[in-house]
Amino acid sequence: MATLSTRLFPTLDASGRDPAVLRRVIASPALAPVLRARRDRRTACGPDLTCRAQALLWTDTETQALRSVTAKEASLPSSDDGLDAQVGREIAGINMIVRTYALGQPAMTPIDGPGTISPLDQQSRLQAADWIADTPRAGASQQLDPSMDYALALLDVSDRIDAIGFEPLMAGANAAASAQAKGLDWNRYRYSAMIVTGVGPEIEGEPLSPFGKYHLRLAARRFAQGDTAFIILSGGRAHPRATPFTEAVEMKKALIERYGIPADAIVIEPYARHTTTNLRNASRLLMQMGAPLDKDALILCNPVQSAYIESEKFTDRNAAELGYQPGRVVSRISPTELVFRPSRASARIDPRDPLDP
Question: What confidence score (pLDDT) does residue 353 get?
């Protein structure tokens, strides 16, 4: 819970770990009556678990009150657009989790959300999350409001804690590439990295899809040209639902075993579940590795997905789902290769998609 909290809700999580900040926020004249009304609303539901979940949703007015108060706490971690915006995103993330996992709002795609479960199992999950939200946790912001721990509990009881499955990523699975990046002369390379997007299998028990294997063949041939510093393999544990395989991990195994690509040239991005977050998360990794953001990367994938990434439809999808563009397509080299310039906006943590931060 603590790790997931820090990963998805860094600002609200930090408030829980700073008693002085927490006291000031809770006692604020602008927020205290809001928090009291929220507690009363949940209490009035009695044992009705659906009602209690509904009561934990933040209204626009309540969200604005919290944003205004926390914006004054300069010690809290923030994103490049400020505390006010970051807290707004975190509250939107809490609301999205509660609506999807507790109240039955359809997930963005069939691979997201809690999946198909029985009414009895759903009641068990709601009850467990309700109890967990009220069970004291060191360093939590529960005194402020139980909604964040309730949202985290919903993910936990639904076995959807994918977002922390590989942490610490750069010191763990990507340690060899991270060490290679230190002191690297990026000017030796035309491209900072080759971003290989995922195309998850749809057959249970299949670690790599046919398209995924095609992507790896393309990547190995392109890497042999020597003008790309790293290969970033992007794909999470997404297809099919509840698969035990993480696509980026399986792609890395295949590149090493089939094509002899050295491990320190491979970076895995094991969280993305969609093409939007393939590019967002890959851009974040490039920043963590110290790659110059004025240096282009390559996007490598099959012609159909490549054309989609270049399309206006994909631009619109990024705007709708991420709220920004993770980068821009500079030019096309071939039917399977796009020149891509990452955007610094991708550095933001955005919990509206809590399954691939």
Answer: 64
* Contact present, 53 and 127 (Cβ < 8 Å): no
Q: Which two tokens stand for residue 30?
A: 């602008």
255 CB contacts (<8 Å, ≥6 apart)?
216, 219, 220, 231, 233, 261, 266
pLDDT of residue 110 exceeding 90, the answer is no
Cα–Cα distance measured from residue 220 to residue 254, given in angstroms and rounded to the nearest whole number: 10
CA 85 remoteness from chain centre: 17
pLDDT (0 to 100) of residue 260: 97
Instruction: Assign residue 232 a region (left: φ > 0; alpha: ψ between -120 and 50; beta: otherwise).
Output: beta
Are 118 and 98 contacting, i.e. CB atoms less than 8 angstroms apart? no
Rounded Cα gap, residues 34 and 14, in angstroms: 21
For 214, half-sphere exposure in the C-beta direction (CA atoms, 13 angstrom radius) is 13
Angle between helices 303-310 and 312-321 (to 10 degrees): 70
Peptide bond into 168 cis (omega under 30): yes
Q: What is the dihedral of CA 73, 75, 80, 84, to 10 degrees?
A: -20
Convert the pLDDT of each residue in 187-225 to its tens digit.
999 999 999 999 989 899 999 999 999 999 999 999 999
- Rounded to two decimals, what is the model's pTM? 0.91
